[in-house]
Amino acid sequence: MPWTVGGPIKRGETLDSPEGPRAVGSSSFARDLKRAREDHTVAAVVMRVASPGGSGVASDLMWHELLRTRERKPVIVSMGDVAASGGYYLALAGDKVFAEEGTITGSIGVIAGKAVLRDLYTSLGVGKEILTRGQRAALFSDYIAFAPTESERLAFEVQAFYQDFVEKVARCRSLTAEAVELSAQGRVWSGRQAWTRGLVDAMGGIEEALAEAKLRAGLAAERPVVIERIPKPPSFWRLSALTRLVPRAQLTPWWWTRERVWAILPFSLRFL
User: Fold this and answer.
1) Is residue 244 scored above 80 in pLDDT?
2) Runs of H (alpha helix) within the chain
């Protein structure tokens, strides 16, 4: 059963869009994976990762679901053009991990922060009054900058998640934490470089991953098998597809504003 994790990773339900990449939701992923895990007709799961990562919490939830599935049947990972940060986090759960020559791999790191839009609101003639209860209740308000104690708390969360990430890589890849640190700190590698550093098991694409899945499931290489793709490509005539024609702003919440720590490949960071 080939599984595609494409686009950013988020908590909640998967979002799909005809005009751009979808966001993979941890709740949808866990629900579908549980069904595959409990289906006796499914011999193995092949997960195709083409994701720069996303929510750190969602990545961890999905990683745990993959480990539960791995206890019952083989889980093979095939990494596409990018498997970085949260995307690589998921790949760690595979029995065997394949990368292509040019796969952007790694980015073992986390980032956190927020946009302070007070000046923008002022220029638009909009005022806000912040009413809070409890310490650091306005930590992620877009109207107030971080106080020193809030910056310290966020730094603590980032460091704790990063150390956990490094430890998971070390455990899943049979490496020392010191060896992982040499490849971590948010740096990225080609698939070939990642293989030499022990971050993946072998070079290859989806065909090699499917062959490995058959081998681990105890099936002969020449034996024909039924391949079920999850999630299924949406049909235009389905109601779910028709609802996507409604403007995105009416359907999609600003889910990224609710995240505290991100395990995502930063394509560009600019500090002003």
Assistant:
1) no
2) 26-38, 56-70, 86-91, 118-123, 148-172, 177-183, 191-196, 206-216, 239-243, 248-251
Amino acid at 237: W
Q: Poorest-confidence range of 99-108, 138-147, 198-207?
A: 138-147
Mean pLDDT of all residues in 108-123: 91
Taking each helix axis as running N to C, give the angle between helix 56-70 and helix 26-38, from 0 to 180 degrees, rounded to the nearest 10: 0
**What's the CA gap between 102 and 99, in Å, rounded?**
8
Q: Which residue is it, tokens 């791995």? A: 70
Give the global pTM.
0.84
3-state SS string over 59-92?
HHHHHHHHHHHHCCCCEEEEEEEEEECHHHHHHC
Among residues 126, 132, 130, 91, the alpha carbon closest in space to that of 108 is found at 91
CB atoms within 10 A of CB 68: 14
CATH of segment(s) 2-111+175-264: 3.90.226.10
Catalytic residue selected from 85, 107, 151, 183: 85
Question: Is residue 1 within 8 Å of residue 228, measured between CB atoms?
Answer: yes
Which residue type occupies 168?
Answer: K
Give yes or no: 85 in active site.
Answer: yes
